[in-house]
Amino acid sequence: MKFPIKIENSIRGLGIQLLIIFLLLIGTTLFFFNIYLPSFTNHAESVTVPDLEGIHMDELENFLVKRDLRYEVNDSSYSEEYPPLTILKQYPKAGSRVKEKRKIFVSVNRVNPPTVPVPELLDRSLRNAEAVLASNELKRGKISYKPSQFLNLVLEMKVGEKTIQAGDRIDKGSTIDLVVGDGFARSYFQTPKLVGNNLETARLIILGSDLEVGLITVEGDTSLGKPTILKQDPTPGTQIRIGNSVNLWIGPEPENEESDSEI
Question: What is the C-alpha to C-alpha distance for residues 71 and 104, in angstroms, rounded to an integer?
Answer without folding.
Answer: 4
